[in-house]
TrEMBL record:
Gene that produces this protein: sphX
Gene3D superfamilies hit by this protein: Periplasmic binding protein-like II (3.40.190.10)
Entry keywords, A to Z: Periplasm, Phosphate transport, Secreted, Signal, Transport
Protein name: Phosphate-binding protein
Gene Ontology molecular function, alphabetical: phosphate ion binding
Originating organism: Candidatus Accumulibacter aalborgensis
Length: 342
């Protein structure tokens, strides 16, 4: 799922060869070679792709922005090898990834981009699942559930004895890490008989096609497909809450609310195209984020992202724990700081 824009010029015969040789020394050729490479989270993809499209239009397509989807972990792997300019991530960078970047001499700026809400969904034909607790989800998704919790009735005696078809992001996904740490208690600990895909759009298709399906996706993929999916209210020991702008802003939709990020290579910012793209993205982030159904941060957060570059404040503010979930005090503190500007 990567956009590669090729040159519209072809070489046919001597005339074309001469034209191509001349083009190689023209200003247009220099612009055409300007490429910004982004890879990582499927959750962040809709924002990154929308930003890329707008930036390319603003630059009259003289700059190409390639947006790939390798999952958060896969994106960091490429980023720390110096293969990309920007990593998109649905979780903060982990300690092992920090170490890989350090070995390669990759210094980076961490840029909070938006707030997302991981959304548990079922097929709209499912009329009996309206809410689930974290305990219910653990019972369904923990490794020991495989071969044991197979039908809806196994999960709740009042429900039908129909086999549940599970869908989940792939192992390289930050969403997978986050969900498993929050629900099971250990990142990447999960039953292995679910249908998986790094691309959440593929998960949407699968869930929409099976009346007994259940899965979890980023909020945008639910909002864009509300005719095909039904969101499940989540309870964490209190009332069951659906993911809405109001419940995310207030902090009531827990524990599945989370910040998402861009990580920008310090070295890549020496490239004019990358620097221009980052400036453009932060100055237009609030509008674009909202247009693609995520929750934008306050304007202050985006201006501070750019100020960190000016001040050369590289690195991360997170501890790098090998977990998909933020540290215990982080979630509400970050929510308050980013949403209310406190």
């Amino acid at each position: 799922m990567q956009r590669i824009l090729s040159s519209p010029f072809a070489t046919v015969g001597f005339t074309s060869l001469v034209f191509t040789a001349a083009l190689a020394f023209s200003p247009l050729a220099v612009c055409a070679e300007a490429v910004v490479k982004i890879d990582g989270s499927s959750t962040v993809y809709p924002i990154a792709e929308a930003m890329a499209q707008e930036f390319q239009r603003a630059k009259l397509h003289e700059v190409h922005v390639n947006v790939g989807v390798s999952g958060t972990s896969g994106g960091f792997a490429k980023f720390c090898r110096g293969e990309t300019d920007i990593a998109s991530a649905s979780r903060p960078i982990l300690k092992k990834e920090m170490e890989e970047c350090a070995k390669a001499g990759i210094r980076y700026y961490e840029m909070p981009l938006a707030y997302d809400a991981l959304t548990v969904v079922v097929n709209p034909q499912n009329t009996f699942v309206k809410s689930l607790s974290i305990a219910d989800l653990r019972k369904l998704w923990e490794p020991s559930a495989q071969g044991k919790i197979n039908t809806w009735k196994d999960l709740n005696p009042a429900w039908p004895a129909e086999k549940i078809k599970l869908f989940a992001p792939g192992a390289d996904s930050g969403t997978f890490e986050y969900f498993t740490e929050v629900v099971v208690g250990t990142a990447k600990a999960s039953r292995t008989d679910a249908t998986t895909a790094e691309d959440h759009a593929v998960l949407v298709q699968g869930i929409a096609a099976d009346k007994d399906a259940l899965g979890y996706v980023a909020l945008d993929y639910y909002v864009e497909n509300q005719q095909k999916l039904k969101a499940v209210a989540i309870s964490d020991g209190k009332e069951a809450v659906l993911p809405t702008v109001a419940s995310i802003r207030s902090g009531r939709y827990q524990p599945f609310s989370r910040p998402i990020f861009l990580y920008v290579s310090e070295k890549s910012l020496d490239k004019p195209a990358v620097k221009q793209f980052v400036d453009f993205s932060m100055k237009n982030a609030a509008r674009v984020v909202e247009e693609v159904n995520y929750l934008p941060l306050p304007a202050r957060a985006y201006s501070e992202n750019l100020e960190r570059i000016t001040a050369k404040k590289v690195g991360t503010v997170y501890g790098g724990e090998d977990k998909g979930r933020l540290r215990p005090l982080d979630s509400m503190q970050i929510l308050k700081a980013l949403m209310h500007g406190s």
